[in-house]
Structure prediction request, 79 residues.
Amino acid sequence: MSQNILTAHDLCKSFAHNGGQVHVLQHVDLEIREKDFTVVMGASGSGKSTLLYALSGMDKATSGQVLFDGKDLVKMKGT
Prediction:
C-alpha cells in the first residue's frame, strides 16, 4: 500500500484587490500518493497556478496546511 507523499488540509488563499478580498482557493483538501500521476485542470483564472505554488512551498497559503512526506512546508525554513 502506498502512502501519501503530499497532503493539503483546508488550504485557502486570498488576495487583496480593489479594497476587498479575492478568495482564489477555498478549503482545498488533497492527497497525492507515491507513484500517482496527478493532473490539475481548469479554466483560465481558476487558481491552478496558485494551488501549485502553495503545494510546492513557493507561496504561503492564507490558511490551511501542506504536508510533504509528513513535514509541514509552512514550518520548514529555506537556506
Q: What stands out?
A: The first strand starts at residue 4 and ends at 17.
